[in-house]
């Protein structure tokens, strides 16, 4: 069959699935084999559009013969080909369909992986869609108690938000990563995520939110006693003192060097705003109340 014309294979397969006066039932099993052979032949010829369509038909065939696992595999192949030809909306649809088919098999990890592959394909061309897929991929794993497998997905989503300069969203994703890490006792990952969130807020020149984030995270004892907490304290203190040199020194520390590259780059660019404003704000907060203020 290797030398067969894929167009003829598709034509033959289509006939096997159509009912007529002479064909009372569709032969999906035979048709699916032909669709698969055609898909591979098209892909070898680099006719990606036809290969994609053939894999979609092969996927439907596997569904019809009650084999959702193989159907999902073919749908992923179709998604990869949609990426090759730049059909970005189809990339989303095909990988989502693959994910649903894996869920039918009761397999959360490949279901999540399918969405992550779609997200990776879309990062540069449709970053908002990519983030949505990464978040959905995380939810699938968390629903199955597999928080440990979400870490890289959350990091990828945070990196996209940083690139888009959506710093509040980036920090929120990092806090979700910390929560996932907490659920599976991954203390080191949890503490790194908290420090990363503080750095993101500082880079966005939002000292108040960075302080609030730090104070909230410090309710958790494992973070309070960590190197990451000590590093965050030094950063925030240096901001309050208006000490740009100290901020830069902390930015070069080994604790920060162990964070993700995206966060390291942000930390090494600190401070980004005017430290005088922060110093004035901090001194106001520390001023004792005058008796007249209480009346």
From TrEMBL:
<comment type="similarity">
    <text>Belongs to the SNAP family.</text>
</comment>
<dbReference type="InterPro" id="IPR000744">
    <property type="entry name" value="NSF_attach"/>
</dbReference>
<keyword id="KW-0931">ER-Golgi transport</keyword>
<keyword id="KW-0472">Membrane</keyword>
<dbReference type="GO" id="GO:0006886">
    <property type="term" value="P:intracellular protein transport"/>
</dbReference>
<dbReference type="GO" id="GO:0031201">
    <property type="term" value="C:SNARE complex"/>
</dbReference>
<dbReference type="GO" id="GO:0019905">
    <property type="term" value="F:syntaxin binding"/>
</dbReference>
<dbReference type="GO" id="GO:0005483">
    <property type="term" value="F:soluble NSF attachment protein activity"/>
</dbReference>
<dbReference type="GO" id="GO:0005774">
    <property type="term" value="C:vacuolar membrane"/>
</dbReference>
<dbReference type="Pfam" id="PF14938">
    <property type="entry name" value="SNAP"/>
</dbReference>
<dbReference type="GO" id="GO:0016192">
    <property type="term" value="P:vesicle-mediated transport"/>
</dbReference>
<dbReference type="InterPro" id="IPR011990">
    <property type="entry name" value="TPR-like_helical_dom_sf"/>
</dbReference>
<keyword id="KW-0653">Protein transport</keyword>
<keyword id="KW-0813">Transport</keyword>
<protein>
    <recommendedName>
        <fullName>Gamma-soluble NSF attachment protein</fullName>
    </recommendedName>
</protein>
């Amino acid at each position: 069959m290797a030398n067969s014309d894929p167009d003829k294979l598709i034509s033959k397969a289509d006939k096997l699935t159509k009912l007529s006066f002479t064909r009372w039932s569709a032969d999906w099993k035979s048709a699916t084999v032909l669709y698969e052979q055609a898909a591979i032949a098209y892909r070898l010829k680099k006719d990606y559009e036809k290969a994609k369509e053939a894999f979609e038909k092969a996927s439907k065939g596997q569904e019809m013969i009650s084999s959702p696992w193989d159907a999902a595999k073919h749908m992923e192949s179709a998604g990869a080909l949609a990426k090759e030809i730049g059909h970005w909306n189809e990339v989303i649809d095909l990988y989502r369909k693959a994910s649903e088919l894996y869920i039918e098999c009761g397999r959360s990890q490949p279901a999540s992986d399918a969405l992550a592959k779609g997200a990776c394909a879309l990062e540069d061309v449709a970053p908002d869609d990519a983030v949505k897929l990464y978040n959905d991929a995380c939810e699938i794993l968390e629903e199955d108690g597999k928080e440990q497998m979400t870490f890289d997905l959350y990091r990828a989503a945070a990196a996209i938000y940083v690139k888009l300069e959506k710093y509040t969203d980036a920090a929120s994703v990092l806090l979700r990563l910390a929560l996932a890490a907490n659920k599976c006792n991954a203390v080191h990952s949890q503490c790194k995520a908290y420090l990363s969130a503080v750095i993101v807020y500082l880079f966005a020149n939002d000292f108040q939110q960075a302080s609030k984030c730090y104070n909230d995270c410090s309710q958790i004892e494992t973070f309070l006693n960590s190197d990451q907490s000590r590093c965050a304290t030094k950063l925030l203190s240096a901001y309050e003192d208006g000490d740009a040199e100290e901020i830069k020194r902390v930015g070069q520390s080994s604790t920060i060097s162990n964070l993700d590259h995206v966060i390291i780059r942000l930390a090494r660019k600190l401070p980004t705003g005017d430290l005088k404003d922060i110093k004035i704000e901090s001194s106001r907060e520390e001023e004792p109340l005058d008796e007249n203020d209480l009346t």
